[in-house]
Amino acid sequence: MTSLFSPLQLGATTAPNRIFMAPLTRCRAGAEHMPTTLMAEYYAQRASAGMIVAEATMAMAGNSSFWHEPGIYSAAQVAAWKLSTDAVHAAGGRIFLQIWHGGRACHPLLNDGAQPVAPSPIAITGDEVQTPQGKQPYVMPRELRDDELPSIVAGFRKAAENAKAAGFDGVEVHGANGYLLDEFLRDGANRRGGPYGGSPENRARLMFEVLDAVSGVWGSDRVGLRISPLNSYNSMIDSDPIGLASWLAGRLNDFKLAYLHAMRSDFFGQQKGDVMTPIRANYKGVLVANMGYTPAEAAEAVAAGKVDAVAFGTSFLANPDLPARIRAGAALNKPNPMKFYSPGPEGYTDYPTMTSS
Fold it and tell me: Structure pTM?
C-alpha cells in the first residue's frame, strides 16, 4: 500500500496521501440549506484524507434537488461553513468545496414552485425525488435561453468567492452525475442548437466558462473538476462516451487545473467501457479516480501510474480513519445505507475508529 501514502502536489495544495474523500451528499443541512456543527464534526473526523471534497453544495439559491443539501450563496452559509473548514484545518486536513447546480434534477416543491432548468426540455425518468410531500416524479424542465447562461456562470463565480471567504482550500466544479453542467455536456440531455449545443466544444462551453470564472477567483491551481462520462444516473447517456471523455481530457489541459476527478463507471451498469485509459492518455495533469476501488486496486493503479489518487466514497463515510485502516490492513466498518440521508448523528458521526472500536 506504500504508493497510497506518498505526497501528491495538487496545484497549489499538497496532499500528504493519495486516499481522498469523495463528495458525498448526506442531507444534514436542513431545509434552510445551512451547514451545521454536526457537519463540522463529520468532516473533521475524516481530516486524515489526502483531500476532502465536501458534498455537492448549491452555488445559487433556488436550485435544490436533495431538499436538505447545503448552500454557499448567503453570508450566513459562509459563516456556518467556517465551522467545518476551521475544524478540518485544526485537525490537520485539507478541504475543497464542490459547487453545483442541480439543473433538471431540481423540483418545484423544493424551490418555491419554480420549474427546473436544463439545456433541453427532457425530463429525468425512472426515478423520483424526495420532497416535503414525499417522493415525487421529476418534472419537465424549462430550456434555458442562451442569454440566461451568463447568470449561471456568475452564480458559480460568486459561489467560488463565498467558498474562499468560508476558508476552503479550493473548489471542485461539479460536472458529473446528470446535473446542469453534465446535462449540457452529454448529448442525451443536450439537444439544443446554437453556441451551446451540437458539437462537443459547444456542449462543453458552459462548463469551460464556469471553469474560467471560478479560476479567476481562486487561480486554476486551486480548482478541480468532476466528470462521469459513463454514469447513467439521472437518466444520462451519451452517444459516444469514450470519444467524449478522450476529447474532454485533452481539452482540459488548457485550464491547468489542480486535478481532474473522473468517475470510471456507471452506478447502474447500463453503460460500460474503459474511460480511464483514454483520460490518462490525454490528460496531462493530476488525475483522481473514483467508483468501486478497493484499497488494493487503488494502490496498484497509483503504483502503475494509471491514476494519481483515488477518491473513496462509502468506505470513507463508514471509516473516519480510512487511511490508518488501509495502512494497518485493518477491517473496515460496513456502511449503513438506511442512514445515508437521514438527519442526526446516527450513521454519520458515530462510526468507530480503530482505537475506539
Answer: 0.98
